[in-house]
Specification:
The protein is an alpha+beta fold and 211 residues long. It has two helices and twelve strands; from the N terminus they run H-E-E-E-E-E-E-E-E-E-H-E-E-E. Helices cover 18% and strands 33% of the residues. A hairpin with a 7-residue loop joins strand 1 and strand 2.
Length: 211
């Protein structure tokens, strides 16, 4: 009887010990920072700014979520595009919030208008990505001028957090976003004359058109 009682006590102690370690492991996994970045909208346009030659600008509205319960600030972003089976890294455009005049600050109702670009620049918000609370805003990239009208198959967004950890989203463009929802979230006006069936927009002579 005593040996059976001792056995049950040993089993109970083992179960309690394992459950304790299981909780430790669960807490560790739950508290890990796990950021997913998506591009809700990308506006492509010809641009001549801080580079010596004309470029294609990629004004990207990024939406970040954190599956972990630990909050984390964002340090930077990397955007890659895939065309004809090959990945190409775009250049980050820094200090885009200081552009004068601000991009797409037009009052023309037939043109795309981005309201408060500087205020809605994602890194200027200086907020962490928290569990259950998304962080979203504009970020700007640039590439070769020929990308203005190029067919881009996929976007890969890498979010670099303040501890320099990289969070990669291989297919970053969210193709399910309703254009009206995008206008509400991003505080951007996209007139019907500029709306199309795809995410990319360009600025050919005569105004901006979404392709």
């Amino acid at each position: 009887m005593n040996s059976e009682y001792t056995l049950w006590l040993s089993v109970l102690a083992l179960v309690l010990s394992l459950s304790g370690w299981a909780k430790v492991f669960y807490d560790f996994m739950a508290n890990r920072v796990n950021i997913r970045g998506e591009a809700l909208g990308i506006i492509r346009s010809g641009w001549h700014g801080q580079f010596p030659e004309p470029k294609t600008a990629f004004f990207t509205y990024v939406h970040l979520t954190n599956d972990g319960k630990s909050e984390m600030h964002i340090r930077d972003f990397v955007m890659e595009i895939k065309m004809a089976g090959k990945w190409t890294t775009l250049e980050r455009v820094y200090a885009s919030h200081t552009m004068e005049p601000p991009p797409y600050s037009t009052d023309d109702p037939n043109q795309i208008q981005i309201n408060d670009f500087s205020k809605n620049h994602i890194l200027r918000k200086q907020k962490p990505v928290m569990y259950g609370t998304p962080l979203h805003g504009w970020i700007m990239f640039a590439g070769d001028l020929k990308l203005h009208h190029a067919k881009i198959d996929r976007y890969r967004l890498t979010t670099i957090d303040s501890s320099r950890k990289r969070h990669v989203t291989n297919d970053a463009f969210d193709r399910t976003v309703n254009i009206n929802l995008l206008q509400e979230i991003a505080d951007v006006r996209i007139p019907k004359s500029a709306q199309g069936t795809a995410h990319a927009c360009s600025t050919p002579t005569g105004g901006m058109k979404c392709r």
